[in-house]
TrEMBL record:
<keyword id="KW-0614">Plasmid</keyword>
<protein>
    <recommendedName>
        <fullName>Metal-dependent peptidase</fullName>
    </recommendedName>
</protein>
<feature type="region of interest" description="Disordered">
    <location>
        <begin position="142"/>
        <end position="181"/>
    </location>
</feature>
<dbReference type="InterPro" id="IPR036465">
    <property type="entry name" value="vWFA_dom_sf"/>
</dbReference>
<dbReference type="Pfam" id="PF13203">
    <property type="entry name" value="DUF2201_N"/>
</dbReference>
<feature type="compositionally biased region" description="Polar residues">
    <location>
        <begin position="149"/>
        <end position="174"/>
    </location>
</feature>
<feature type="domain" description="VWA-like">
    <location>
        <begin position="301"/>
        <end position="422"/>
    </location>
</feature>
<dbReference type="Pfam" id="PF09967">
    <property type="entry name" value="DUF2201"/>
</dbReference>
<dbReference type="InterPro" id="IPR018698">
    <property type="entry name" value="VWA-like_dom"/>
</dbReference>
<feature type="domain" description="Putative metallopeptidase">
    <location>
        <begin position="3"/>
        <end position="281"/>
    </location>
</feature>
<dbReference type="InterPro" id="IPR025154">
    <property type="entry name" value="Put_metallopeptidase_dom"/>
</dbReference>
Length: 427
């Protein structure tokens, strides 16, 4: 596996913004997989014979290719589409390999690119998928028409026409000269686990949870945007992806400013005097006069995160994305309280990757709200991120509460009128 480790180091050096993803991937050697592939749990399965057949630069390109499948959530998107694995395989490779070419990476011969199918470059995977499906239907219709035209006058078709398979045959890229198209074995939905995939809780190579994967994606997306801002040289497709990932669903700054009267809106932009800092004009004033400096008053926000058994890893991933939005858009002093049937220890955080979510039992967000109210100092606002399958406080809390409902919520547990409700769609 020396080539894989060398490729990991090469990518970290050339693309430092991918570091969080590179070191999150767990490498699993397996002769059962034909080439390479990843699963939804961020395990990279590697066939040693395939790896040894490649040049070092090609191994580096394939590793980058696999990371892109993980970062772009191709497994989940395939499930959402109910996608045909082969068509989705081709579509995702077209989208990824365009960016690989722009990034100056080398891939094995026979890779899939949009122009080989007569398609426009730098489009989304879903666009390529629909286009390839349409090409397959047209190809199938043409084949059936040719088969019907070859029938004899007495109605007896030839053996080729009679045995024609009506299943869709995916279009082949032009210009491959009959060579087998190179693809990695990555794209089947999780429900169609391949023979080489390990169990989620495998002792030596456990899968990343969706919440952990979302943290990694967030770190990479922020690093990409920072790199693009200061140094440039990031493929356009990766920048677009990063902008979509970093942006939360809820515009927290606007929501808080609009709905809070005496809380966050009144503290944003305010300062408090302190003699621990020197006033910025002290250098041009009489040294005998000591003026206090100041520091910004940040809004204090407590986030109650539903960690009960009914909340999926995917929901927790979205919850972490919203917390990142609060940190970035509001610049808040933030405390996270994991809550199932009880409120767990509060965590003061400055970054999403500092959060440790605990729980897994029953559900009662009113307990988490009560715990948040007991924090010192008291928060200016409480945000509850939950699937909505929870009891709510019967009385209006003394500070504003915003409920971010992950998914569709529940009619059995309506959110009280005194709590501002916002919906967070789950992709």
């Amino acid at each position: 596996m020396k080539k894989i480790e060398a490729a990991r180091l090469a990518l970290a050096k050339k693309f430092p913004y991918l570091s969080a993803a590179l070191w999150a991937v767990r490498v699993v050697e397996s002769s059962r997989i034909p080439t390479m592939g990843v699963d939804a749990g961020w395990r990279l399965y590697v066939n040693p014979a395939f790896t040894e057949s490649l040049q070092p630069k090609e191994v580096t390109g394939v590793l980058w290719h696999e990371l892109e499948h993980l970062l772009r959530k191709h497994h989940r998107r395939a499930e959402s589409l109910g996608a045909d694995p082969m068509a989705w395989n081709l579509a995702t490779d077209c989208a990824i390999n365009d960016d690989a070419k722009e990034a100056g990476l080398v891939l094995p011969e026979g890779g899939c690119y949009p122009h080989l199918f007569g398609l426009e470059a730098h489009r989304a995977e879903e666009y390529y998928y629909q286009a390839l499906q349409q090409q397959a239907l047209q190809q199938q219709a043409l084949t059936q028409a040719n088969a019907q035209g070859s029938r004899q006058p007495n109605g007896q078709g030839n053996s080729q026409g009679d045995s024609q398979d009506n299943s869709q045959a995916m279009p082949q890229p032009n210009g491959q000269g009959g060579k087998k198209v190179w693809m990695t074995d990555t794209h089947a939905p999780a429900i169609e686990r391949r023979a080489w995939e390990l169990g989620h809780d495998h002792a030596e190579s456990p899968a990343l949870s969706e919440a952990e994967a979302e943290i990694v994606r967030g770190e990479v997306a922020r690093a990409i945007l920072e790199h693009a801002k200061t140094r440039g040289s990031v493929p356009a497709g990766m920048v677009r992806w990063a902008q979509e990932i970093v942006a939360p669903v809820i515009p927290w700054q606007r929501v808080m400013a609009h709905h809070l009267r005496n809380g966050v809106r009144l503290t944003v932009g305010r300062t408090r005097p302190t003699y621990e800092r020197i006033h910025r004009r002290m250098g041009v004033m009489d040294a005998r006069v000591r003026l206090p400096g100041s520091y910004s008053l940040k809004p204090r926000v407590a986030v109650v995160v539903d960690t009960s058994g009914s909340v999926s890893d995917r929901m927790l991933g979205h919850a972490l994305g919203e917390i990142q939005g609060i940190l970035r858009q509001v610049g808040a002093e933030l405390v996270v309280v994991s809550t199932d049937a009880q409120a767990h220890a509060a965590q003061k955080v400055q970054r999403v990757d500092q959060i440790r979510l605990v729980g897994g039992g029953g559900t009662d967000m009113s307990v988490g709200i009560e715990a948040a109210m007991k924090l010192h100092p008291r928060p200016d606002v409480i945000v509850v991120l939950t699937d909505g399958l929870t009891p709510w406080p019967e009385q209006k809390p003394p500070v504003p509460v915003i409920a971010g409902i992950l998914g569709e919520g529940s009619q059995d547990f309506p959110v009280p009128e005194f709590i501002r409700q916002v919906e967070i769609p789950i992709a």
